[in-house]
Every structure is written in C-alpha cells, then in structure tokens.
Amino acid sequence: MTGSSDQPPRGRALHPPLTDFPIAAYIFAAAFDVISTVGGPHRDWATQLWHAGTFVLVAGLVLCLVTMLSGFLDLVRFPVSRPRVARTVAAHVATMAAVFMIGSGDIAWRLAEYDSSASTPTGILLLSLAAAVGVCVGAAYGGTLVFRYGVGVTAAGPGVAGTAQATLPPPSRSPARSPVPRAGTARHRLRRTR
C-alpha cells in the first residue's frame, strides 16, 4: 500500500551526493588563498591562484544553492521525529546557512577587489578560512545524520540490491565457531604447529 503513513518513505536521499563539490570548493578556495597570500603580490602565480579561488568559490556557491534545495526536499521527504536527530538537523542547517552567508560575503568582497589586488587580501583570506572550517563542521553534522542516525537511508531486506544499508545476519553467540578467525589467530596456530 503506497502512501501509508506507517511505512517509511521509499527511495534515496537526493542531498548527500550533491554535497561533495560545494565542500571541495570552499576548501580549495581557502587553500588557493593561503598559497596566494604566502606568494605575495609580486608573483604571477599568486595572482592566478587568487583568481582561481574566486572562480572555484563562485561555482561552489552556485552548486551550494542546488545542494541546499535538495537538502530541504529531503527534509520534507524524510521527516525527523527523534529529538536528538532534530537537534543535529538544526545544527547542520544553521552551520551550513552561516557558511553560505560567509561565502556570499567572500564572493562580494572578491569581486570588488578582483582587479585591484595582485594576491589574496588578508580579510578575504580570513573569510575563506572561516568558510572552510565551517563547511567541515557542517559536513560532520551531515555525516552524523546519515551514518549514525540513518536519516534518508532505506533499510533493505535480504537480497535487495542497490540500497544504502545492508541487513546483517545476527551475530554468532560463540566466537570460536565464527567462520572468520579473529585477528592474529592464524599466526598463533602456525607457531604452534612448527
């Protein structure tokens, strides 16, 4: 019966696969800015890295909008009812919204300074570093939602391929009967037989 309220929603979450590029863009922009600042205004490659950081951040922010929209759609599709999960969702959303605002300010400042600076200005470097640290914290919250709480992960029955979470058999009560030897067991058996 489809549409029943007692069944979990079917399908996969849209948001997690889209997060990689925006996260990488914030981190690469910060790395380019650090190297550009270290190089200083008298090196051509420092200017090129400053401009590359701008392009990467603009592309990252555009894709960040799509990623945020998919996250909102997943939040509507996979409602959260557990309080701890709801707090983690709130922390993830707040952190990533703050990172988006920092990135937007970074882009505005970059575009104002684009032709007048030969390397990354110190203020823009600090914004880029703040966005990179913030996106790592927000990504950790997002990873907690998926990998610890299973938000947006559909559990499958045995034999169902293509699902994000496998159903494991119950653990054996006797570790001696386990078909997989414990770490170091085979090595000790070899020593005993010599």
Order of helices and strands: HHHHHH
What radius of gyration results from the CA coordinates? 24 Å
| Integer average pLDDT | 81
Strand elements, count: 0
Structural class: mainly alpha
Termini separation: 63 Å
Number of helices: 6
- The coarse silhouette is elongated
Q: Bin the helical content.
A: 55-70%
Give the uncertain stretches in residue-range form.
159-169
Largest sheet: none
Overview of the molecule:
The chain is mainly α and 194 residues long. The chain has a domain at 21-148. The chain is 64% helix and 0% strand. The protein is built from 6 helices and no strands. Helix 2 runs antiparallel to helix 3 (44-77) and helix 3 packs antiparallel against helix 4. The chain starts with 14 loop residues before the first helix and ends with a helix. The model is unreliable at 159-169 (pLDDT under 50).
Chain-wise SSE layout:
Layout: H1 15-18, H2 20-39, H3 44-77, H4 83-113, H5 122-148, H6 185-193
